[in-house]
Amino acid sequence: EVNKELEALGVRVLSQYAVLGSYDFVNIVEAPDNETIGKVSIELGSRGTIKITSMAAIPIDKFIDTVKKS
Fold it and tell me: Three-class SS string for 1-62?
């Protein structure tokens, strides 16, 4: 059900894991931009039933190219 909600908000679920420790679940998702992820965080987080931590991932080659240009 959550996957359908995420897809409706423009996010594609790549994988899901149940984890032990500080978090219960980890979802790896893909979105067109950080604004879309922000929208998802606000929409789902405002319900008060989940806590979302977002970490934008950059392919290492793109990251290195960006650092070299600065």
Answer: CHHHHHHHCCCEEEEEEECCCCCCEEEEEECCCHHHHHHHHHHHHCCCCCCCCCCCCCCHHH
